[in-house]
Amino acid sequence: MNSILSEIPNIQINLTQLGNPLILFSFLTVFIIYTPRFWITILISTIISAILSVILKELIDVPRPSVLFNHDSFVIIGEIHSGYASLPSGHSMTVFTAITLLLFAFMPKDFNSKIAWVIFVVMLGVFLVISRIGVGAHFPLDVVIGSSIGYMIALLAIVITNKTKCGAWIDYKKYHIIIMVLLALWGCAIVNEILAANLFVLYCALFSLIITLYLMIKSHVKK
Hints:
- This protein is an all-alpha fold.
- The chain has one domain (2-167).
- The chain is 70% helix and 0% strand.
- The chain has helices spanning 2-5, 9-15, 21-24, 31-34, 36-60, 65-68, 90-105, 111-129, 131-134, 140-163, 176-196, 200-222.
- Helix 5 crosses helix 10, helix 7 packs antiparallel against helix 8 and helix 11 packs antiparallel against helix 12 (200-222).
- The longest helix has 25 residues, at 36-60.
- The protein starts with a helix and ends with a helix.
- The relative contact order is 0.18.
């Protein structure tokens, strides 16, 4: 898989960036305006995912491919990931958390449309997470387990959001100025990423943030 996927290095290095919450969730910031409760679920799932990823990596302690194999036997694209934090894949957890939230949040009512939507979203998730194998950062099992955990984290976050009122504050307009400041800081963080790695997907993420910030400012000024 690594050999085949690495034949398109530019695509793999861009796709793998979407496992970074800083980048992936930039494309979803527009939902803060239109479906704010959806974003509360994202925040909850991100916190759970971050904590669980650190704990599991420490407990399981599986070596990365670069530790086990000679670098001449497989392809590494971009950063060389070393150490013993291979299982589970944190990027895969992030991707499938987001994918699952989108899957259920925008599920069509028609049965045939549901089937098509599920297939499309799951295939999109798979397409993104296998980039971790393509860049030589993970084994296939790391990706499968990480994706499964991400799916379960999303379900847990959905239950927490529906059973509690922890996200009620996001509906209040007085907090929007704080959100706008955070979006601006978020944009600065992505600019820093662009300076470190001049990748197309990073520019797309920054553009998405700018659009969301513009829409929020426009709405705030009108009010």
